[in-house]
Amino acid sequence: MPITVLSMDEIINAICLHMAERKGVKVTDVQVELSWEEETGYTAEVWTQGRSQYLVESNMIEAILRYLLSEYNIRAYREEVRLELDEEITAVVNG
């Protein structure tokens, strides 16, 4: 299977869709900000219904896996997805 790369916008969309479904809210009611820090690695701060929540890398990858299946019909496994930081955060899928 070829390598698939998701842009930062697609990662944000994946997390928005995932969190909207989990929280029972509209996708437009979810805001996401991605970040990378040496101490914590990749994280996403998610705002829904006036509350802030942090997702760690494994939660982000869970959302990405669901997005790959629903949007691209790609069934990937956790170990096939890695987040990378260049000029922006991307997800690289070796499937």
UniProtKB/TrEMBL annotation:
Pfam family, one: DUF2653
Organism: Paenibacillus sophorae
Entry protein name: YxcD family protein
